[in-house]
Amino acid sequence: MGLVKWRIAGSTRENGLETHLPRYHADLGGTRHVFDDLRALLAAASPARSGDMLAGVGAQSAEERVAARFALADLPLAAFLNEVVIPYEKDEVTRLIVDNHAASVFSAISHLTVGGFREWLLSNAVGGAEIAAIAGAITPEMAAAVSKLMRNQDLIAVARKIEVITRFRNTIGLTGRLSVRLQPNHPTDDPAGIAASILDGLLMGSGDAVIGINPATDDADTTATLLELIDEIRLSCAIPTQSCVLAHVTTTLELVRRGAPVDLCFQSIAGTQAGNRGFGIDLALLREACDATQSLQRGTVGQNVMYFETGQGSCLSANAHHEVDQQTLETRAYAVARAFDPLLVNSVVGFIGPEYLFDGKQIARAALEDHFCGKLLGLPMGVDICYTNHAEADGDDSDTILTLLGVAGVSFIIGVPGADDIMLNYQSTSFHDALYIREVLGRRPAPEFEAWLENIGLSDQGRIADHLPPALIADHIPLLRDARG
C-alpha cells in the first residue's frame, strides 16, 4: 500500500489561518504522489467528473486519485480549521464558514481523521440525532472530504439516518415522508397554462414542498401576477402548502414592499463570493431578503422562508472557482444556505450540462454527494434529478437516481408535467415519478398536505384515488376559465 503522510511545510499565518499551505503525499507502488495544498488534495481525491477535468484540477490517473484518498483519509479533521481553500480575507463565504464554526461541539469529533470520521458516521452506534448534534462543527470542506472516501452505498446509509425538519404551512423532512415541488413552468408565463399544470400536479398528489414557478422573465409585474394566481388556487381549496415564483431576490424584495403574496424568497447560490456576485447577490442582500420575507409572517406552522438552489459547476461556469474542485465548492454553498434556516434547498444536479457532469453515472454520484453533504450540514435537502438533452443520460438514469435518493431519504424532488420542462428545456422528474417512489418505498406526503388530500377525497388509504374529486374540479374550472381571460 505504501506510506501515507501529511505535513505542514514552512507555513506563515494571517488572520489565524495558514496562508502558505501544507504539502501532502502518499507513496504507492514506488511512486510518490505529492499534493501541494488542501485544495489540490481534495480535487485529486474526487471521483472523476468532466467539470474538474475542464478546470484542470482533477486527478490525472486512477492511481493518483487513490493516493490522494489515502492521504486524505489520514488527515485530522482539525487540520481543516487551520487551512482554507480560499483565503479568508478575499472571500466572504470563507469568513462565514470560519466565523460560524461551532467550536464548542467540535470536541466530539476533533480526535478523528477524515477516514475515522467516515467510520464514525457509518457506525451502528451513531444515529441521526448524534450526527445532527455536531452539524455546526462540520465545515463544508470536512463534509466534502469525507464524501470523497465513500462509496455510493455509504452516502445513502449515512444520509438516511439524518432527519432535517422545516416548516411553513406544512412540515417537510419527517422520516417516511417525501415531498414534491410542483413545477408548472410555461415558456410565456401564460396563467392558463400554468394553472392547468398546477391542477394536473395537485390531482397526482404533488405540491406539498412548494408550488414553485420558474418565470420566463424576471419582470416584477409578471411575478406578482403568478404569485396571485397560486395564492388564489391555494386559498380557494385551503391547500396547506406554500408558493414561490423563483425570481431574483431583488425582485422578491420589491414585491414584498408592494404587498404581494410572497410566501418564500428564492435565490440561486454558489460556494464563493465571486460565484455569488455572478448571481448578483451577497450575504448582506440575502439577509435583507430573509428578514423582509419573515416580517410578513405568512407561515402557519413555521417561518422557514428561504428557498435555495445550487448545482455543481456553477462557480466554474462563472470563472469563480479558485482552482477548487466543483464538489467542494458545491458543499461550500450549503454553508451559505444554512446561515438562513431555509425551508428548502435543492441541488439542480444535472442542469448545467455534460461539461460539468458528463453522463448518468457522474450525475448519480453528484446527486448522492450533494444530498449527503447537505444533510450532514443540517440542511433540508432535495434534488432536482435532471439532465440536459446533450448529456449522455436518459430516463433510465433518472429512474435509478430517483430510487437511490428515495432510499437515502431525500426530503423532496421535483414534479414537472411529463418530466419535460418546456420552459427551461431540460428533463426532470414527473408527477408520475413521485407516485412511483412513494409507492415502492412507502413514502407519504407532508402530514398536513396528506390530510388535505384525504379530506377532498383524492387520497384513499395513502394512495391517490382512481376517481377525480368533483369539488376540486368544480373549484378550479372557473380559475382556468378566468386565467384564459
Automatic annotation (TrEMBL):
Keywords: Bacterial microcompartment, Cobalamin, Cobalt, Lyase
InterPro entries the UniProt entry points to: Aldolase_TIM (IPR013785), EutB (IPR010628), EutB_dom_2_sf (IPR044939), EutB_N_sf (IPR044941)
Annotated substrate binding sites: R181, L182, Q183, N214, E309, D384
Single GO term (MF): ethanolamine ammonia-lyase activity
Cell compartments where the protein resides: Bacterial microcompartment
The protein's Enzyme Commission number: 4.3.1.7
Cofactor(s) needed by this chain: adenosylcob(III)alamin
Residues annotated for adenosylcob(III)alamin binding in this entry: P215, Q267, S317, M423
One Pfam family, short name: EutB
GO terms under biological process: amino acid metabolic process; ethanolamine catabolic process
Gene Ontology CC: one annotated term: ethanolamine ammonia-lyase complex
Primary site of residence: other
Recorded metabolic or biological pathway in which this protein acts: Amine and polyamine degradation; ethanolamine degradation
Reaction(s) this enzyme catalyzes, per UniProt: ethanolamine = acetaldehyde + NH4(+)
Lineage top rank: taxon: Bacteria
Cofactor note: Binds between the large and small subunits.
Family: Belongs to the EutB family.
PANTHER family documented for this protein: ETHANOLAMINE AMMONIA-LYASE HEAVY CHAIN (PTHR39329), ETHANOLAMINE AMMONIA-LYASE LARGE SUBUNIT (PTHR39329:SF1)
Subunit organization: The basic unit is a heterodimer which dimerizes to form tetramers. The heterotetramers trimerize; 6 large subunits form a core ring with 6 small subunits projecting outwards.
Main function: Catalyzes the deamination of various vicinal amino-alcohols to oxo compounds. Allows this organism to utilize ethanolamine as the sole source of nitrogen and carbon in the presence of vitamin B12.
NCBIfam families xrefs: PRK15067.1
Protein name (Swiss-Prot/TrEMBL): Ethanolamine ammonia-lyase large subunit
Classification of source organism: Bacteria, Pseudomonadati, Pseudomonadota, Alphaproteobacteria, Sphingomonadales
Gene: eutB
